[in-house]
């Protein structure tokens, strides 16, 4: 009787472990989605209006996280990817905060330095998400 209980406990622990592995598994982007992201990134680089460029960078990362299977608001997606994939989301939060300033504040001024920082953060985040640009 005791070995049955131990066997059931072992099977239960194994199932919980396997479910955790499946839950934490990083969903990879298809090659066509990766190509689409690279094309969008190149277009973003050609946008002359700094504010629009930052909005597009933020939207691109929302698109990527959606394609990776994350749901909810962009903030919820960022929290989930950080927890599930142990992905450093600070650069994406920085971009998103700048996007929010542009979208919600009157007469926002973004410096060239901030613009450069956002593009660097974007490139680094794309690489960490497995997208070669």
Descriptive report:
The protein is mainly α and 133 residues long. The protein has one domain (28-128): Four Helix Bundle (Hemerythrin (Met), subunit A) (Up-down Bundle), CATH 1.20.120. 75% of the residues lie in helices and 0% in strands. The protein has helices at 2-24, 31-45, 50-67, 74-85, 90-104, 112-128.
| Beta-strand percent range | under 5%
Reading off the top of the CATH hierarchy, the class is best stated as Mainly Alpha
CATH A-level architecture: Up-down Bundle
List the total number of helices. Answer: 6
Instruction: Decide which structural class fits the backbone.
Output: mainly alpha
Biggest beta sheet summary: none
* CATH fold title: Four Helix Bundle (Hemerythrin (Met), subunit A)
Termini Cα gap: 60 Å
Low-confidence residue ranges: none
**Rg on CA atoms, Å:** 20 Å
Tally of discrete structural domains: 1
Give the beta-strand count: 0
Please describe the topology of this protein.
Elements: H1 2-24, H2 31-45, H3 50-67, H4 74-85, H5 90-104, H6 112-128
Helix pairs in contact: 2-3, 3-5, 3-6, 5-6
